[in-house]
Design a protein that fits this description.
The chain contains 12 helices and 9 strands. It has 299 residues and is an alpha/beta fold. The strands form 3 sheets. The protein has a 4-stranded parallel sheet, with helices on both faces. Helix 10 packs across helix 11. The longest helix is centred in the first third of the chain and has 16 residues. 38% of the residues are buried.
Amino acid sequence: MAAASGVSRATVSFVLNDDPHQTISAATRDRVKEAARTLGYVPHGIARALREGTSRVVVLNIEAGLESHYSRSYIDGLDAELAAHGYVLLVRHGHHTAQATQQVLDAIAPRAVIRFGETYLTGRELNDLGGGWRDGLAAHAALQLRHLVDNGHTRIALALSDRESPLAATRMKFTGLAASDLSIPRPDSVDIPTERSACAEAVAEYLTRQPEVTAIAGFNDDVALRVLMALQDLGRRVPDDVAVIGFDDNGYGKYSNPALTTVYVDAEAHGRLSARLALDLGVGSLRPPPARVVVRQSA
């Protein structure tokens, strides 16, 4: 390929490896890539792993209960950015023991191992050393609550799934801290079942105990849409009697009646950012846009 494109073997290596530390003209890059296509060049994965000390695989561990619209979008961004730099993503779902993780490390020598959720909870890879208050879960939970407060609500409940989630306690903590900053009572929680009649019963029982609550914030859009359905089954007007806001816009809220107000997070950009940091490429100009409230009719 060096002979065919008229450059050194080192330059060919820099181009094929997309080395970010080398300044190579676009014309030279095009000549090398054209030579690679013409000659049918295919990287030898085992040889490359031996030379580099790791394979071209990045592992993402995602614990059970963390799957969501955010995680799916995050994985899309992570996969796309890794592929752009010649890496392959391996996603491991479920509970991961230390022994099983070590077996993966020994078998494929991955370039990096990412633990999903860690960056979003801590903000570590989102240029936020304060626990996610700039562009992590804490900041987005506060954004959700602030929208309700700005619309006159002070007695608010947080609707959680009745299925155990590793994030439930953390979400309650961040919501409570945000409530303190907004000088409103700390919201309590209500578990929302998936079965329709049970969902209505749970909401009815909660509002009977807490009649002063005028707004319900959903753990995510799935939970918020179940609350919306339950309130309609109970003959409650939304948002006149009770306002509802979702979280992590899954795309379905715009089809409900009333349409669901929610919080949109660009998780795909977070995934791309994680990929660059895992590969030690630096973030460059990549900056995820801030989360925003998608204002519809339910709140």
